[in-house]
C-alpha cells in the first residue's frame, strides 16, 4: 500500500468519526416506534392513540436512511376499531412504498384493536407472558329508567327519526334496538376477521370458532395458534438478524411548544396547584377510569 493510499484511508476514517453512526455506509439501522395505550378518544381532552397522533412518527421511521426494517413495539388493550384499522393501513402503505419489512414486538398486551395494529407486521414476536387476541367487538351501556322513576325524575326526549334515541339509557331497552346493534357488531367483527386472515394467512393454525370468539391467550399459545410467529425480544431478535452493531434509534413524537399547542401536556401540567389543573380534574378522572377499565380486562 502506497503512502498516498494510506493517507486517504486515514482521512476517510477521521471523516467517518464526524458522521452519525446511522449514516455511515454499511451500517444496519432499524428504527423503533412505540405504539402504546388505549386506541381512540378516551375523553375529548385526553385522546388515546390515533392515526393523527402517530402518522408523522411512522413517516419519519420509514423515511430514515440506511433502514433495513422498521420495528414496532405494541402495547395496547384496544379501543376504536376505526383508528386501529387506519393505523394498520398506514403502516402497510409505508411498508409498500419504502419496501421495508415490519417487525412487531408485543409487550404486555396486543388485544382487540391492539392486535389489529400488530397484524401490520410481516412478523410478530412476543414475550411468553404477553397477552394476545381478543378478536371481537364489544359495546355496553347502563339502564337508569328505574332509578329516575324512583327519584321522581321525568325523562323528556324529542327526536326526529324513528331510531334516533336507540339504546337511550334512560328508556327501557328495546329488543329491536339490541338486534340492530348486534348486527352492526357482527359487521365490524367480520371486517376484523378478514383483516387478520389476510395478514396472517396460512400461518393461522386455529379454527375460526377458536380464534375469533374474542378469547385471548398468552405468548406461547398465541404462537401455537399462529397469532404470533415466535417468542423473542427486540434487542436479541434484531442483533441475530442484522448483526451485533445494528442501530435501533427510537423515533418519538415531536415535543416542544408546537406540540403543547396541539394538545400535548408538558410534565407537571394539570396539577392541583393551578386553576387549570382543578378544572381538568373531572376529565382526568374519567380518562383514568376509562383507561383502567380497558386495561383491567386483561389483568393489567
Helix share bin: 40-55%
**Which class do the helix and strand fractions yield?**
alpha/beta
User: In CATH terms, what is the fold-level topology of the largest domain?
Assistant: 2-enoyl-CoA Hydratase, Chain A, domain 1
H and E string: HEEEHEHEHEEHHHEHEHHH
How many independent structural domains? 2
**So, CATH architecture of the largest domain?**
Alpha-Beta Complex
- Which stretches are poorly predicted, pLDDT < 50 over at least 5 residues? 259-279
Radius of gyration: 24 Å
Note the beta-strand portion. Answer: 5-15%
CATH class of the largest domain: Alpha Beta
Mean pLDDT reading: 81
Describe the protein's architecture and organization.
With 300 residues, the chain is of the alpha/beta class. The chain has 2 domains: 3-134 and 215-263, Alpha-Beta Complex (2-enoyl-CoA Hydratase, Chain A, domain 1), CATH 3.90.226.10; 137-201, no CATH class. The chain is built from 11 helices and 9 strands. The protein has helices at residues 3-18, 51-62, 81-98, 113-118, 145-150, 175-200, 208-211, 219-225, 234-242, 257-261, 275-296, and strands at 32-36, 41-43, 46-47, 70-76, 102-111, 123-126, 131-133, 216-218, 230-231. The strands form 2 sheets. Strands 1, 4, 5, 6, 7, 8 and 9 form a 7-stranded mixed sheet that branches. α2 (51-62) packs parallel to α3. The radius of gyration is 24 Å and the shape is elongated. The relative contact order is 0.15.
At a glance:
The protein is α/β, with parallel strands linked by helices and 300 residues long. 44% of the residues lie in helices and 13% in strands.
Amino acid at each position: 500500500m502506497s503512502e498516498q493510499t494510506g493517507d486517504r484511508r486515514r482521512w476517510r476514517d477521521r471523516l467517518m468519526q464526524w458522521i452519525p453512526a446511522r449514516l455511515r455506509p454499511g451500517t444496519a439501522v432499524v428504527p423503533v416506534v412505540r405504539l402504546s395505550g388505549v386506541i381512540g378518544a378516551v375523553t375529548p381532552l385526553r385522546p388515546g392513540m390515533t392515526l393523527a397522533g402517530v402518522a408523522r412518527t411512522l413517516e419519519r421511521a420509514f423515511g430514515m436512511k440506511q433502514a433495513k426494517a422498521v420495528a414496532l413495539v405494541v402495547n395496547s388493550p384496544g379501543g376504536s376499531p376505526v383508528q386501529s384499522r387506519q393505523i394498520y393501513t398506514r403502516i402497510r402503505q409505508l411498508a409498500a412504498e419504502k419496501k421495508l419489512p415490519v417487525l412487531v414486538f408485543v409487550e404486555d398486551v396486543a388485544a382487540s384493536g391492539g392486535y389489529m395494529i400488530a397484524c401490520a407486521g410481516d412478523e410478530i414476536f412476543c414475550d411468553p407472558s404477553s397477552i394476545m387476541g381478543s378478536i371481537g367487538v364489544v359495546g355496553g351501556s347502563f339502564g337508569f329508567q328505574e332509578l329516575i322513576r324512583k327519584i321522581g325524575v321525568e325523562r323528556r326526549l324529542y327526536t326526529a327519526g324513528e331510531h334516533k334515541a336507540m339504546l337511550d339509557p334512560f328508556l327501557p331497552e328495546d329488543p329491536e334496538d339490541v338486534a340492530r346493534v348486534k348486527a352492526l357488531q357482527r359487521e365490524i367483527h367480520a371486517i376484523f376477521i378478514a383483516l387478520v386472515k389476510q395478514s396472517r394467512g396460512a400461518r393461522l393454525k386455529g379454527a375460526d370458532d377458536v380464534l375469533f370468539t374474542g378469547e385471548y391467550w398468552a405468548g406461547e399459545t398465541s404462537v401455537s395458534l399462529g397469532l404470533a410467529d415466535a417468542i423473542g425480544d427486540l434487542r436479541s431478535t434484531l442483533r441475530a438478524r442484522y448483526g451485533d452493531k445494528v442501530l435501533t434509534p427510537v423515533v418519538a413524537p415531536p415535543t416542544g411548544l408546537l406540540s403543547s399547542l396541539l394538545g400535548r401536556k408538558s410534565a407537571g401540567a394539570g396539577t392541583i396547584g393551578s386553576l387549570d389543573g382543578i378544572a381538568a380534574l373531572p376529565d382526568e378522572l374519567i380518562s383514568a377510569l376509562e383507561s383502567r377499565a380497558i386495561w383491567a380486562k386483561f389483568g393489567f
